[in-house]
Amino acid sequence: MLKKSILKALLVGALGMGLVSPVSAEEVVNVYSARIDKLIKPAFDAFTEETGIKVRFTTAKAPVLLERLRYEGRHTEADLLITVDAGNLWHAANAGVLQGVKTPTLSTNVPENLTDPEGKWYGLTVRSRTIVYSPERVKPEELSTYEALGDPKWKGRLCLRTSKKVYNKSLVATMIASAGYDETAKVLENWMKNEPIIHPKDSGVLKAIAAGQCDVGIVNTYYLGRELKKNPNFPVALFWANQEGRGAHVNISGAGVTKHAKNKANAIKLLEFLSSEKAQNLFADENMEYPVNPKVSASSLVTKWWGDDFKMDQVNLRFAGRFQAMATKFMKRAGYK
Ligand code: FE
């Protein structure tokens, strides 16, 4: 009941903001976005300029948008959902608020492993969640895999973000998909034996390494990008994990057409546009992410990181969702807070 009243208040808020407006002859597409204005607006403006289709959007946290889509059901005004992490997109697909869409343009622009097999969501940008270290106290030769961070040599030297964050749930879920249940449970146990310092944010992990509180950690690449943008001498370096094996974990920001989209054709046009060469850099560069479209090159710092020899985990990201509940259970059992 309480939930419903909160959602009702949100809906009334949306009406007030003008997201939900009377029907007009004008071509529109309505977007619910968990990505902030700064990251999406330039690409939306370029879309409107090219197609004449107006983009109306509202931003909120991913779980709020998902709840709202569920509550609104077929009455929703949203045509497209944009959010981060395949775990979130999988949840949305699983909750029945997205519909499968397949077009030749989308299958050319977005690699298969970054796409839902039923076309309910598509990756738009790629980020890796990989190992970071202090180049002052650690030699890169000492590093190899996520699993090896459980080695006793890292006792008291490891910083991790809280297991409550979807990014870590997805990392562990894809580890379950690749390495299996037993191996993953063992890895988590070993990490915990090293008594990691748990931080609420990736930026906290980076700052802790810079400040000497710990020597190694795991973060999303763009957080390091942001620190380096502010200070090119920020004393933390990036290490691509598991290059001899399955590759470093990658995740996406992505989008899917809503089940009850009233402007479905326009939503597909926008999705195609966001995956196009023209929009990809507008979309990816701003947050130091990597474009999904293989024909597009990234901003110079990101290109420097993601050299030709970078190996990404090819596991289909739907497993980030499928094994998410299990990942959460495993982390809890290992005592990973
Ligand atoms: Fe993030």
From TrEMBL:
Which cellular component appears as one GO term in the record?
A: outer membrane-bounded periplasmic space
The protein's UniProt keywords, in alphabetical order, are:
Iron, Metal-binding, Signal
Q: Tell me the residue numbers annotated for binding Fe cation.
A: Y222, Y223
SUPFAM superfamilies from the UniProt entry: Periplasmic binding protein-like II
Listed GO MF terms: metal ion binding
* Domain of life of the organism encoding this protein: Bacteria
Family, according to the entry, reads as follows: Belongs to the bacterial solute-binding protein 1 family.
What is the name of the protein in this document? Fe(3+) ABC transporter substrate-binding protein
Which organism is the protein's source? SAR324 cluster bacterium
